[in-house]
Amino acid sequence: MSSSGSKLRAKRLAEVNASATADGQVTHLETVAFGPSLAVERFRFGNGLELLFCEDHSAPVIAYHTWFRVGSRHEREGKTGLAHLFEHLMFNEVEGRKAGEFDRKLEEAGAESNASTWLDFTQYNISIPKDQLPLVVKLESERMSRLVLREPQVKSEKEVVANERRYRVDDDVEGAVSELLWATAFDKHAYRWPTIGWMKDIEGFTTEDCLEFYRTYYAPNNAVLVVVGDVAELALLKRLSAAYGALPPSTLPLEDVQPEPPQNAERRLEVSKPTSTEKLVVGYHSPAMGDFDHPALSLLAEVLFGGRASRLHQKLVRELELATEVRAFVGPFRDPGLFEIFASAREGKNAEQLLAVMDAEFEKIQAEPITAEEIARASARLELSLLAGLETVDGKASTLGFYETVLGRPGAAFERLETTRRVTASDLVRVARRYLLPRFRSVILVRPDAAASNAEAAQ
Amino acid sequence: MSAGATVIRLADAGGATVLLETSRALPLVTISVGLKTGALLDPPGKEGTTRLLSRLMRRTGGGLDANVIDTRIDSLGASLGADVAHSTLAFQATVIARSLDAFVDLLVDVLARPGLAQAELERLQRETLAELTDSLDDDRSLARRFFRRRFFGAHPYGRSVSGTSKSVPEITHGDVESVFKRNFVRENLVFAFSGDIDAEGASKIAERISLALPSGVAPSDDTPEPTAVPGRRLVIVDKPERTQTQILIGCLGSHTRDEDHVALLVANTIFGGTFTARMTQEVRSKRGWSYGAYSNVPFDRRRQTFTMWTFPKADDAGACLRLELDMLHAFREQGVTKHELAWAKRYLVRSHAFAIDTAAKRVGLELDQALYDLPSDYYSRYTARVQAVTLEEANAAVQRRLSDRDLLVTVVGTESTIGGAVRDAIDGLASAEVVPFDRVD
Is residue A58 within 8 angstroms of chain B, CB to CB? Predict the structure, then answer.
């Protein structure tokens, strides 16, 4: 920013802070480049609440995201799924507003609203026509500190979450097997349980569990606001300072992180599921997203599994016709996760055949360099994917919030793209040899169960 | 039009329409090439032909090998796919602007010079059959497929766009060629461009594609209006080990040229169109029975359905179904309130901002308008028409268009667990059918 720009911002901040509480005093921390044409301003309020603001006048709308640095990793055995249940409860009653009013008012304002919980974070996203900003600031600041939890609502929401679990996991082959894969691959780290939680834990939560969770983690100094859209900086800061300046920070507990010990032998399970064909799910322990190797391993995943021209798609789906589909992704998490692979066998083919072909391909990439053309192609796919995700203000806010919460660098999406462009064939050989080894993996072989097979026979 | 996109008519290329909105926000160009014909033109007994054709074109453009095409598209930082619906077909592409020229060379080959190689067709048929088998794992998709099949019966809307395990092997190379020749004529094309491209660039691309195709008569859509089957019917799609039940309830719905079309959309918003609508309140918020509870009024060129969708646990399936039928009855009998109507109108008018917040979305609406023969002011006057809906109009639309007597209930679950309860939940049940989940044909 130019010196005149700095003076202007200093003037704005002075104007905001003149009438702000101590917790509402705002400081500008940095300007972060967000791609070639946008910039993100980072602010911090007196109570520790951070704001990432990207002014974008491409449409008369605003994305307003609240990212809390709490996810399923912060839970413990017997209380799994609490972060996710709590995400549901955040749409209920607030002091002075009856249950359901939050959503009703947002919809009346024309808002699009949703939320999600994952291993490392919980995020609430609202997109609004720009003239509805005051309402959203009021509603979001209210529920950060004045949520009301009552027994009937907690009981009903537990039922909703149990039904979500049935939908996404219990009656979904891929969901059920992915959950089993992580539980098999991890012994110590909190990544071993699913974000949605085990069913018995969901059923066992009390209102007191939820209140304790709220008091512990839902505080301004554990949150980041991400605002992208058609609003001026001064107007936004004034409004946020007034609304959030009344919220005191809390003392966040020390996270009880249990690093995962190295895995030294393959773990293999065979399960039966009501499915028509065999499935193969494999998870190799992979580095944390902030690790030097993560971009290279992600690029390797793209070379091997990204799109129809990728090596494993070519081999398994086209050439050998063993699989219907095959895909993989490298977990984008704060701590080491999994390079997770899913493949669905064709009728009459089995999961072992798929695994044998994968193993042969992995041996090949550990011995022979991947071509420059394949590397460039994978890199172009990642670039397209990033750009396509930035068309809307919500897409921009999601990207900023995710990279801020996981890596602490909101503009890291573009940094990673640059890093990816510098990845060499040697880097890919190195990460293939380091991570894609049988002793580091867990393998789940899924067989169609008898009931499903009988139904097929009847056909 | 909704957002002031540029509209160009290509006089020398069959009069094809080109829709364009330039946006330099990102170095991306989005291209859609739409046809006003879709899977309804599949030959009898050969459902899935149009979809197979579109995928085959994508794999054989310019007589190239599929792998060469896939590799080239990825290398350019592009994506290319085809959306096939009953009444329309649209190739959708996005490309990083620096690669536009090279990508267009490939696109012209795909659209105008596909090799349609026999060996690739056979490979694609095998792939499609395997995908159909895989789709049996998805209960929601099963519910939709069985619902459509049973609801529309012999009407063309009952056909499967993807084809079936019986129809796909029957499709010949001649069928695919014939559908290509019939549909891909200049006069049947609508182009839509958005992003980092100007009018001159868009016109040139559209012209290249149009002129590479023959001139001809665009096929007409002679599909008759669907009619309702009298009575309350039930289809139980029996699948083992289901802890949950997918429930779809439906009757005939709306037509975009109905005078009460928008009134019905507004009423549906109140009933099941949002997260705070009646269905979510009663089914999810009050009872916790289903993670989602929504109703829907889609459109096509002929009248479509009104559907209600929930997925309660197996133990709650009967009670949930009964509640939904009672709600539908009350919706018809008592209508919506003045307060609900005012709320819904504010929601629809304000949230329209997110239907038009990017150039790609704005042009996409105009493309839909052209492809589905919507009234020319369908989107430009949408919010005004919503604002104008009166309480009497909304309630009259519900009474006139929706039925709680002539409807189809489709459930996917384990029959031995839920069969009795769901039958008992439907008063005046006219017919019930149990069908194994893998007999989707």
Answer: yes
- Which residues 115-154 in chain B show a CB within 8 A of chain A? 123, 126-127, 130-131, 133-134, 136-137, 139
Q: Which ranges of chain B have pLDDT less than 70?
A: 1-5, 11-14, 441
Mean pLDDT of A100-115: 96
Test the A interface: residue of B22, B274, B350 with most A CBs within 10 Å: B350
| Residue range(s) defining the domain that contains residue A145 | 3-244
Q: Determine the pLDDT at residue A6.
A: 85
pLDDT tens digits for range B290-346: 999 999 999 999 999 999 999 999 999 999 999 999 999 999 999 999 999 999 999
Residues A233-286 have pLDDT tens digits of 999 999 999 999 999 999 999 999 999 999 999 999 999 999 999 999 999 999
Residues B272 and B313 in one domain: yes
Shared domain for B165 and B244, answered yes or no, is no
Question: What is the average pLDDT value for chain A, to the nearest integer?
Answer: 95
Nearest to B347 among A107, A393, A456 (CB): A107
Q: Are B348 and B280 in contact (CB under 8 A)?
A: no
Number of domains in chain A: 2
**Partners of residue A99 in chain B, C-beta under 8 Å:** 285
Q: How many helices (H) does chain A have, and how many strands (E)?
A: 17, 12
Domain with residue B74: its CATH number is: 3.30.830.10
Strand order in the sheet with B429-436: B290-296, B305-312, B246-252, B407-413, B232-238, B429-436
Q: Does A312 share its domain with A240?
A: no
| Contact residues, chain B, for A167 at CB < 8 Å | 244, 291, 311
Report the chain B residue with the minimal C-alpha distance to residue A323: B130
Catalytic residue list contains A101: no
| Inside any domain, residue B227 | no
Q: Do A387 and B244 touch (CB under 8 A)?
A: no
| B238 shares its domain with B169 | no
The answer on A307 and A224 residing in a single domain is: no
A171:B343 CB<8 A = no
Instruction: For residue B93, give how far its alpha carbon lies from the nearest alpha carbon of chain A (Å).
Output: 12
Are B191 and B239 found together in one domain?
Answer: no
A 185-244 near B (Cβ less than 8 A): none
Q: Which of B108, B98, B97, B104 is nearest to B23 (CA)?
A: B97
Sheet holding A267-273, edge to edge: A267-273, A441-448, A279-286, A337-345, A323-330
pLDDT the model gives residue B16: 82
Same domain as A149, residue A100 = yes
CATH number for the domain that contains residue A125: 3.30.830.10
ipTM of the complex: 0.94
Q: What is the mean pLDDT of residues A439-447?
A: 98
Number of domains within chain B:
2
Of A174, A377, A390, the CB nearest to B74: A377
Q: Are B188 and B259 in a shared domain?
A: no
CA A252 to chain B, closest CA, distance in angstroms equals 32
Does residue B83 share a domain with residue B127? yes
**Contact assignment for B354 to A127 by CB distance below 8 Å:** yes
* B413 CA: distance to closest CA in chain A (Å): 10
Partners of A157 in the β-ladder:
none
Find the catalytic residue in A50, A75, A87, A93. Answer: A87
The tens digit of pLDDT for each residue in B142-195 reads 999 999 999 999 999 999 999 999 999 999 999 999 999 999 999 999 999 999
Q: Is the CB of A110 less than 8 angstroms away from the CB of B77?
A: no
Cβ separation A59–B357 shorter than 8 A: yes
Mean pLDDT for the stretch of residues A184-197? 98
Residues A5-38 have pLDDT tens digits of 788 999 999 999 999 999 999 999 999 999 888 9
Q: Which domain holds residue B333?
A: 232-436
- Do B378 and B315 fall within a single domain? yes
3-state class (DSSP) for residue B153: coil
Contact B338, B386 (CB under 8 A): no
Could you write out the DSSP letters of every residue in B64-131? --HHHHHHHHHHTTEEEEEEE-SS-EEEEEEEEGGGHHHHHHHHHHHHH-B---HHHHHHHHHHHHHH
Q: What angle do CA A110, A115, A121 make, to 5 degrees?
A: 145
